[in-house]
Each structure stands twice: as C-alpha cells, then as structure tokens.
Model the fold of this input.
Amino acid sequence: MRGVPILLLLPALALAQAEPPLPAEFTACLAELRTQAQREGITNDQFDVAMSRIEPDQTVIVAMGNQPEFSTPIWQYMAGLVDDKRIAEGQAQLKQWNKTLERAEKVYGVDRYTVVAVWGVESNYGKIMGKRPLVRSLVTASCYGKRQAYFRGELVSVLKILGSGDIEVDLLKGSWAGAFGHTQFMPSTFQRLAVDFDGDGRRDVVSSVPDALGSTANYLKQAGWQSGQPWGYEVRIPAKYTGPSGRRTKIHLDDWVKHGIQRVDGKPLLGDAKAALLLPAGARGPAFLALRNYDAIYSYNTAESYALAIAHLSDRLRGGKPFRKSWPTDDPGLSRSERFELQERLALRGYDVGEADGLIGPRTIDAVKAFQVSEGVAPDGYAGQRVLKALRKQ
Done:
C-alpha cells in the first residue's frame, strides 16, 4: 500500500479532533484491533490511515439480525432472485462474456451457467455491489455482535488487500458483512482464491468482470465442484412422506429409489452417488435431490434458500423450466419475532433448539420434526404458521 502524504491527512485529523470523542468501548476495541493487525504484519501507519475518522455504523448492527436468507419465506426469496428479467439479463451476459466463460470452464471445470448464476444472485450482474465502506463495516462488526472474532479476521484481510495494491480503498465497498465485488467475495476468501484472470497484474473483482468470473469458478472448483455433473434436480415424493430429509442426510441414489423418490422429468435415478433430499417448504412444496455440486454452491453462503436460488437460476439460464410443484403459500413463513417465539416454545417443551436466535437452522428443524411427530402430522421440519399455532394452542 502506498503511504499517504501527511499534509493530506492534516485536514482530516483536525476535523476528527473537533468531533465528539468515540465511546470508550469502541476506542478500546480499536486498540485491540491494532494489536491483532500488528501480529499479522500490518504497520501502524497502514492501520492509522485505514482507521482515519472511523466510527461505528449503526446500520451494520441492525443488519446483523436481519438476513433475508433466513427471514424471508423461500417462495418470496426465490421469486425475487429468479425471474424472467434476471434470466434474460443473465443470458445476455453469457453472450457478452462468452470467451471469458469458455476459458474459465477449461481452466476450472465449472460450467458457465453456474458462474453467471452466482453473479446474478450476488450483485444482479454488477448492478448492486454494496455501498458501505468495507473498513467501517468490518470494524463495526469486529466490535459489536456475536461474531467479533470472525469479523476481526476479515478486517485484517481487508487491510492486507489494501497493502497489496490489488484494489484501491475507494473501491472497497460492499455489504454490511464485508462481501464485495461482482460476486461478493469475503476478504479472506479473496485472499485465498481470487485470481488475475484478465492478466493485468492485479486481482480486481470490483472493476474487472473477467477477474470476478474467473475467481468465482476457482472458488467453486476448490469447494469440490465435480465437472460435468448437475447440482441436483427436482423430484416427486410419495404422499404423506415421512422418510429421511435434510441437507446433511445423504444416502445413495439407489436407496432414494427404495423410498419412492422419482425425478419429476421422468428420468431414472441413476449414478453411483449420494444425495440429500431437500424439502425447503416441507412435504407439500417442491422437493429436490441435491448432489455434491449443490454443496459447493451452498458453501458460498451457507443458506439453503440462497444455494437453491443459484442452482435454479443456473438451470433457467441453460433453458430449464420453472419448478413443477407450487410452493405452499397457504402456510406463510414466520417473522423474526415469531421465529424467536417458535424456538422458545419448542425449548419450553424440552426440544433442543440450541440458543434461541431467530435463525431456523438444523437443530430447530429437527425440533420441529419431533414436535410434528408428537402432533401426528408429517414431520417435514417446515417452521411455518401452522407449527407455531399448534405450539400456541398447547
């Protein structure tokens, strides 16, 4: 990173001195961040320049508890990310960046449709990359909330990016959590997996579409992408299905056949592979068998609705059809406060949900299934209004 002339810093320093002092707890946190940065090879001068006039961003603190992947009903989430306009724009991007995507396929073995789908879901093809300064966002998340250790690591990675000269500080803007660029890399992910795909000597996922697409393909390859294989497919389950389900429950395709699972397109379940049965809206909604490539997509941003949106958009970009089965919109999802209530009511009845945090993760889904069994209904694990109303009646 190039040093900033002291004369350029003097006006900012004078303004900072005229402003009210920072809260004592935030000042103490900055001191801790400086010590950690020093251990990682960041000089005091680099740290001081990056932290010039820094202060907490209250909007980041609010955003920490309001992630749409966990709070929006999946049919609403999917509808907002996979529509005719995004499909058409994605197909136009496929044509515009055909040579770059062809080269990425050859180098990394990841199909172009999935790479462009990540781009479409993450930033609407570069139209929405986030406007929050990364340093400020990550300093805030490093000093407040439940994941301070994680965000402190991301902050150090941002400081190293600035030191490398790959991306200028004015361009390092993104989401409240620190993701940035066309495909929203976290800083530590950028450090590990970003590539210079346009050959200009810099890894710039903000200003260079080739760098962003190549880096995304590299990420998926390193996440275990299996070239030439699908992410999965929509399936049909038997009426009143009560068998295994969930992303972590993987069994061989032959065993899914024994459970009565069939592809909606009529093709046989063939192949020497294990898959997981996904019921994101319960047994009354669309069902999917997810293979290894789904896990690679899921690792990009660990939320089932997010991964399914990318998977489905990739299918639509290659000419696939909408889901055959409709979403069960007569059982709406829960608000954040209702999700807290659901977890608390389950815990009061002895079900293990871990900490009540308003996020519907694997433990809460398992608890919902167990409650559904006690109620004599199909244990699909869907945390909707029906389950909450049943808990309230008790």
Q: What stands out?
A: The chain has a mean pLDDT of 90. The first helix runs from residue 6 to 18.
